[in-house]
Fold each of these.
Amino acid sequence: LVLDEAAAITYLEEYDRLAADMSYQYAEAAWKYETNITEETLANMTEWSLKRSDFNYREAKNASRFDLSKINNQNISRLLRKVMDIGTAAFPDTVKLEKISDLEGEMTSIYSRARGCLNTTTCLPLEPDLVDIIANSRNYAELTAAWKGWRDASGRNIKKLYPEYVSLLNEAITFEGKYKDMGDYYRSSYESPTFENDVKALFLELAPLYENLHAYVRRRLKEHYGADKFPSTGHIPAHILGNMWAQDWTNIYDLVAPYPDKRTVDITKALIDQNYTIIRMYKVAEDFFSSIGLYKMPHLFWEKSLLVKPVNREVVCHASAWDFSNKRDFRIKQCTALTEEHLLTVHHEMGHIIYYLAYKDLPYLYREGANPGFHEGMADIVTLSFQTPEHMKKIGLLDAIPGQNDTEGDINFLFRMALSKAAFLPFGYLVDQWRWSVFRGETKPERYNEKWWDLRCDFQGIYPPVERSNADFDPGAKYHIPGGTPYISYFVSFVAQFQWHKALCKVANIAGPLHRCDIYSNTIAGARLNDMLKMGSSRPWGEAMLKITSGTSGQTDKLSVAPLLEYFDPLIKWLQENNKKYNEILGWDKKNCPNFLSP
Ligand SMILES: CC(=O)N[C@@H](CC(=O)O)C(=O)NC[C@H](CC1(C(=O)N[C@@H](Cc2ccc(O)cc2)C(=O)O)CCCC1)C(=O)O
Ligand SMILES: [Zn+2]
């Protein structure tokens, strides 16, 4: 162990170039696979995944020559630690590493090519067909067929691969002795020993908001579908909430709006009426980011992105944003459709690209979110402005906005926001509760589905419309499980984005209630946001949180639900009053899940 700081700096400069190039090669291989699913493109991606692991393995060895106790420069030691933090790549058994990559590719391929059958003759892909049925059908039986059909075609066929995937990941990640299991490694990206308890506390603080929304929506859905469809336990059937996973309830707004006679905001209709093109959706999003002084899309973005579902080949339709680590090439892959939901997703994916652009000149190792939740928070933050009636009117997608003293219109707007931002919270929280319990070995393969429905019934207060058992594998019907991508980042994002929205509206001196604030064309807000984005992961994320919130009443280096609850406060009061008026009993039997047949 020799080699002082000067040698470390030289080494890191060389590493930076090689790592960025390796990352580019892997991204290209992954892109070729996701935009053209074949045996060959899967094999090529696996090959590059192995090359990348091998590169990481070798460089971690090289970096371990430096004695960190002799390196005083915080930045150099942080970079060296990141070179050595290589996760499963530290595992020398490349045959098993290849198996992990193959299993992940195989499960993603099954998921992306699955066709859910409604009956013996009609089988449909998830996007756009089954998603559209769950979003728009109001026929209980049709909804049940789409819900069950999707799970039979996806989760059921992925089930047989998942146990080996879990045990190989755990074997690889525990090899070096730094991590207890794969969940422990996932959580380490938050650099906090109390992270797991912190998010649990945040979730419990948000429960009253969710329970009031759940009680109100349950009552309104009973009116539509009949009380006989609702068990005495208080749960809501999982398939009538407008979303295949009941994680976003916006699509049933027309069924449950507080003041239905008010003009319901129908952006999808406006997009169609105004002959919007797919490209124009991306130009509108780009215009938002450049209006606050951030960035326009580089020309390669328009040249290389895949923005519509191809007709002649299988692709991974699940939307995603890509950083090719060469400071020039950034892409979105999305099977974009002309709907409001897709317009929001366009803003989300472009939000990721803006983060990539903000930190593109940092050392390669720092080109990530301050933590994964920050990357998701940045992806979502502009939608809090974009969806306001003021903004919708500004870009001509809405002709009338609720006046200041139009409380009914205001409640309708807040309610619609809660159908996505509040309804999501228990789901955003529970996906990794399930996955962490699997990685810990608390949940064995024979109880995978039981644990899933325990959590879904307990935290979301929903239940399966058709009988489930441990022969099913419903977690496998959610992209991120076969895809192996963490999910708690979305829960963190939903908390953080409201903290940032409050801070940015404050520094931008935008008056009025938080839920009507639109930072569009406000370069002061944009500059403050950019100051945080430019940090990448160069400093612990508490400093990034402080960077955005400093000088405002929400100043903190921690996650806090206060801004989210402040944003929804008028609605929470309205829901509590309405639920009391109808003597609604909040909540559900958390320990008894209807329709689950434990063996
Ligand atoms: C190369 C790569 O993988 N890149 C990363 C980005 C990065 O890490 O750099 C990436 O593109 N990930 C894809 C993922 C896609 C979507 C998603 O999966 N969303 C969640 C949860 C959710 C729900 C509501 C909401 O408002 C926001 C999120 C779901 O649909 O359940 C689907 C459409 C929206 C976002 C994404 O963009 O986060
Ligand atoms: Zn995202």
Amino acid sequence: MKEMLKSWRHVFKLDPDREMDEQSLNAVCLSGTDAIMVGGSTGVTYENTVDLLSRIRRYELPCVQEVSDMEAIVPGFDLYMIPMVLNSSDPSWIVGHQQQAIDRYGYMIPWELLVTEGYIVLNPDSAVAHLTGANTLLDTSGTIAYAQVADKLMSLPVVYLEYSGTFGDMETVRAVHHKLTSAQLIYGGGIKDLHTAKEAAAVSDTIVVGNIIYEDLDQALQTVLAVK
Ligand SMILES: CC(C)=CCC/C(C)=C/CC/C(C)=C/CC/C(C)=C/CC/C(C)=C/CC/C(C)=C/CC/C(C)=C/COP(=O)(O)OP(=O)(O)O
Ligand SMILES: O=P(O)(O)OC[C@@H](O)CO
Ligand SMILES: [Mg+2]
């Protein structure tokens, strides 16, 4: 499954803390997207995650959990994406929560299913930037440097450029992409239609589409066409 992740070009991110009716979930799961990622920065619980996973499992597509709270880790996902927010001002969001979770779950951890994401949070107004105290005042060179910490110093499999809630600077995304040797570049933030999806897909390996699913489902479904 870890190998499959590399081929994913489009992913829908569903938030367990938000409502979705069956018809909308059906449309998302049959949209042609490569996978569903389940996660959010706040309000994610064991209960709302189990509920969403069990509904998604009626469909055949891969489903991964992006872990933001160790209390909400649910068995049964295909992969577990583990963020490390590299530009956080608080080390607990880089290695602290991860160390505590490993200490707690110990021998139960299916290591072959864990994928570490080197997160670079770039929208100062996002929930995740506030939560993690991210230093979002980075120019392109500073952003590349974080990406290279992930790719070259830490050998992380994924660099995630996170503009959650706003469409990012595509020149910065392109520049980061060019500098990566091994890591997969995931881009997320503000993709709201086919046009923005195409722009982001052109400069990254994988695009993640989140909020628009809940705001305008028809536009969200169009974004899949950007990678087909
Ligand atoms: C049997 C079994 C399955 C055992 C468990 C094994 C397992 C999977 C162990 C995991 C061990 C481990 C290392 C866990 C990590 C624990 C943890 C809490 C790490 C911290 C992660 C972190 C840095 C969180 C900060 C927030 C963050 C980066 C969240 C990612 C998702 C995100 C950015 C969503 C966007 O947020 P959203 O709510 O949509 O925001 P908007 O409001 O802007 O839309
Ligand atoms: O919700 P949006 O802005 O689409 O961002 C997607 C994803 O990167 C959020 O973690
Ligand atoms: Mg969101």
